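Working notes for the structural subgroup meeting. M.R. asked for a predicted model of this chain before we commit to crystallization trials. I am recording the input and output together here so anyone reviewing the notebook later can reproduce the run.

Input as submitted:
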Amino acid sequence: MADFLPSELVITPKGGVYHLDICPENLANKIIIVGDQDRVELVSKYFDSITHKSQHREFACHTGVYKGKELSVISTGIGTDNIDIVINELDALVNIDLKTRNEKKEKVSLEIVRLGTCGILQDEIAIDSFILSTHALGIDNVGHFYERNVDEETKKLEQEIQEKIKLPKYVKPYLTKASVKLNERFDSSTVEKGITVTSSGFYGPQGRQLRLPLVETGMLDSFSDFKHEEVRFANLEMECSALFSLSSALGHESTAICLGLANRRKKEFTTNYETKITELIEYVLDRI
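Returned structure, recorded in token form:
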């Protein structure tokens, strides 16, 4: 019997995975993921050649060659629910034989870099900074559905965060690390670093209040004020917790480097997005 039945792993008539709608031969082992499908072409225009283009729903994929290395850039849409789809299907493309539906004995480890945008949680981090995630703190739920790889140091830090951060009482945060291996490539004196908070929404779950009152009004300040030795919360976005936890559990390397668009403490927003996102794309491509 096959390891993965049709109700669990849906394969398209052309032999691809269900949501991404791409086949194993369409995917490189080095992958940049972006939220916005229009950002895929902003990245792939730098490729020396493009061997594959597709789009299904919000999932656009361009694969090609950049400076002699094969790369894929894929849009995920917004949120950890979409990351759950993308990471599971990327893993299936390389570690499951889609014809037999059996798990492969020899595993492939992908390198996945999220290139995105974020809000800033510290006064001293300037608008338009590049922010490299050392960890992600999930205040979403996706990571709780899977067995996760968490070392003792991360568990201790997670416990301290749970004790000090102000969250709605039914929210249970979880902490996961970015790939140290990948972060060595993207770290530099010009890049800010810290823990990334991953929320399940853009408004209330990120402390924004329009017409609906919030259950917990002190959440953002508790993130910004948290300090543990050299550890701080740097930014806020909607994907990293699922990206890091699922990638790590499946044996893939993943990290994120984001452009800080809004300083939530200082109530500032960028006026220079197009220039700075281009600089970030070039920074990532030259280091991936």
